């Protein structure tokens, strides 16, 4: 203000009011320059005139030369950040309203003088019907998210039978339509391969991989069933995996998701029959998974059942074992302990079967060695007895007692010796088939 006064020779004294009421009083009581903004009715009855300065120059103001007018400011009010969707027709009507500033100021002056804004407004509408009628939106001029509807509320594709606009429902999308009247929108059903679950939508969404939509107006895409897959988006159907194959879950999106059905196992990209008696083959079984099996408890992976043996070189060749203990199952080639062979029937070289396990041959037990030794001694004495009887050098009064040479009569117990086999047999608690007693004569 000081620069303006100096630059343009304005005889002015500058004062600042102590508040809004004092400001209004000062302006109304004194002939003075004052700040004001329009449209506003505070000083409208005084018919103030605007003092015009040269157009604002930002460069001069930046350099400190403020002889030009002020920059001014734009005052706006935000009613709603989504007014178009909430009340689109109201928004369009308001946006079409157009008044010039002097006209607004004149109406404000009329309101102040008459004291009734209602009467002033009604008089203006009666005098300007053609003007404000043009501001009304066309009933069939729809906005995004809406579409043309007929008298029954059904969506239509042109204005011929349309009477208004309706909110686009799920399964549809708002599409722009240009005709002789102007711009409008129609709600079109989503085509096959697309869907839209929401209302007030401007486009349909393509079905993602692993899903499809076969009908118009779909609100959701359907995941592919087990046994089907779909590697592309926006599709109307899914692709079958083919014979002997299925999928582990719904919504498969790749041919790689197609696996062998239950009771089959994949070998070299081919699903082979799986012997259900000897092998457990769930969906998705492969030779690689079978070879990596650890035991028979995880039912989600293939394994050889207990009591059977699978040839590691040909895992699908299985054999029943002579004893279930020998073949614990799991992966191919697994035997109990150190057993080996197609049915785990043999111990490895250098081992023998004892006490339900393969024992090293070097670890022969003392009891076993003693048993063998006693058996050999028994055989020796039996051979000796047979030889004596063959040559008639002994006389036996029964199968258990014999005499050597010509000895006869009772023999003292001190000179009677029982065969060692009999003693051992009695010590072991067995009843020997015969005992050989030798009688030595004095």
From TrEMBL:
The keyword Metal-binding does not apply. Keywords: Membrane, Transmembrane, Transmembrane helix. The chain crosses the membrane at residues 367-386. Residues 214-258 form the Tyrosine-protein kinase ephrin type A/B receptor-like domain. InterPro entries: Growth_fac_rcpt_cys_sf, Tyr-kin_ephrin_A/B_rcpt-like. The keyword Oxidoreductase does not apply. It comes from the Eukaryota. Pfam families: Ephrin_rec_like. This is Tyrosine-protein kinase ephrin type A/B receptor-like domain-containing protein. It comes from Durusdinium trenchii. The lineage of its organism: Eukaryota, Sar, Alveolata, Dinophyceae, Suessiales.
